[in-house]
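Worked Example 4.2. Read the sequence first, then its structure tokens.
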Amino acid sequence: MSAQHPHRRFNALTGDWILVSPHRTQRPWQGKTEAVGGTARPTYDPDCYLCPGNRRANGEHNPSYTGVYVFENDFAALLPTGATPGEANHALFQTEPVRGTCRVICFSPRHDLTLPEMPETDIRAVVDTWAQQVAELGRQYRWVQVFENKGDAMGCSNPHPHGQIWASDAVPNEPAKENMRQLEHLARQGTDLLGDYLTLELAQGERIILEDEHWVAVVPFWAVWPFESMVLPRRRVEQLYDLSDGERRSLASTLKRLLTRYDNLFETSFPYSMGWHGAPTDGKSHAHWRLHAHVYPPLLRSATIKKFMVGYEMLAEAQRDLTPEQAAERLRACSEEHYTSRR
């Protein structure tokens, strides 16, 4: 099949299909462009709601933290005491109560850093905090979603390096689809789906971005976003808190190397949404599940042109404008020395 030939690919992890139209990268662009990052940020911003010692929007003050700092989200989307909705008067109007907890994780006290610019030891502290938070919240809720939105293009409302954790007593749509597909694969093949997938990717090599003894970063065969990636452990583990000391140290290195390559691709602080999918925290056995992270960056052609999920994507199915193989090749070609340190 030609690299410029339109085709569809199947996402074995969700059951969705995606349209691949690589020839569309040749079309002229006269649409919206994103603003490139402005002046360098200070190490401390007195007007930032997340900097140490500052007053947040709800009037509370942050402590003078020196490492990773976690607090309850002041504007939480989920509440620990969910109200019971009224009875549905028709099967087409179903509702159900939902309980949850939302927290914010400040990765660093420094306002001017992002994950790829942080030392590996500090990223390791973030990894340990993710694991601790999943373990704690997982004792109370069925699903714990660790994620980070980075950059204005992904709707991030504060540039201070931070992520979030939303825990709920219901398993959300996307992980529910992944759970079903992985269960079906284990029943059919006797092996975990992502383990088999990783074996195939390592054998082919063309979509691998980077790897070490514990982790592999790959542009998925079924990737939707232009430079989407997935981070997979070589050893099957179900949760972040299952990772060994060596795997956590290696993960900090993998994240720094991967996210640095993103920044170097267009020499900009690359926006993305990144999050972890561990097994549901429902106390059951999950031999079908392998921990993994999804990284969804929106930029397509340059630091100023992003992919829009509109029209056909909203009404029909997801569509991408370059092949995953082309995306992986471009990311592999990027340096792991951050572009700002080379200037």
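Now turn to a second chain, presented in exactly the same format:
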Amino acid sequence: MARLGDIATYINGYAFKPSDWSDTGLPIIRIQDLTGNSYQANRYNGEYDKRYEVNDGDILISWSASLGIYIWGGEKAVLNQHIFKVVFDKTEINKSFFVYQVQNILENAASQAHGATMKHLTKPIFDSLPFHMPTLKEQQYVAAVLDKISNLISLRKQQLAKLDELVKARFVEMFGDMLLNPHLWPETALDAVADIVSGITKGRKTQSSELFEVPYMAVSNVKEGYIDWTTVKTIMATKSEIDQYRLMPDDVLMTEGGDPDKLGRGAIIREPLENCIHQNHIFRVRLDRNTILPEFFAEYLQHQKAKRYFLRCAKQTTGIASINMKQLRALPVLVPAIEAQKIFADFVTEVGRQKLTIQQGLDKLEVLKKSLMQKYFG
């Protein structure tokens, strides 16, 4: 056994200020650039300490807000604060083995992190975290096994992404560019073709003594184009609240806020859990299926006409954007012929079957990887 501080030197990034930002120069690597949540790249065009330089293949660890380890795969860049650059200058170690084990360590260390809303690890705690240090030969074996599984996981994710691209291509092929509307589809406000409601408020006060524990959809469950069932929370609700907010098959769920590039994201909930409801930061859109189908609408939300509308009318503060009920009701929606929508919906259903098969294989691989990580590093 060793400690993380014995393995390498960890250089914290520089505290770049907004006044340092530029449109030219080297990219500034922030946590959101590593997590994929960045919608705007910042650059720096000036002198800098070489300690903060990051090159292709360097290993980076975010220790605040979002704990994670990453291998930088981009151009030469400079490092922002709250991220460590790892310099292997203390002992001989397999880099892949290091990455896998630190990934496992950070997941376990989240419970030790300070801050209720923003998690972070202090440097003393980080350096003192225990690290399994087998022989270099054993490290290479473990890394090779986990690399093989990780490559298969990556391949499955690529397959899913290609199927999503196929749906997008089919959508444009059938209906044209939504922004340009070359087919001259009629346009209407969303509230003319849908019933839209906000959800239940957590922490509200109720006079009723009879409460029932039911599952509810939170913002974290609604991704762009799909429902994430990884963690489903429950809430105590009255019978009237359950009746009011109960989700039905093929309802479209939309988030009211988030990163600007993901604003207004939506997904169809195909098979809601019994008595499943939704929280107040999610809008439930129940469409008039004689006019517009959920498969068409859910895909429509991912195209530029809808995205630009939301960005134009959204309230934005510190990188977070939000829309309200009035704005959502006024969302302009193009309405193609229902027969064409049905053909597209059938296509989406068929692709969905293929995605389900791939997803099931992906889930098994991720369970296997997790169990092996526990075996090697637990």
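Notes for the reader: The chain has a mean pLDDT of 91. The chain has ten helices and 25 strands.
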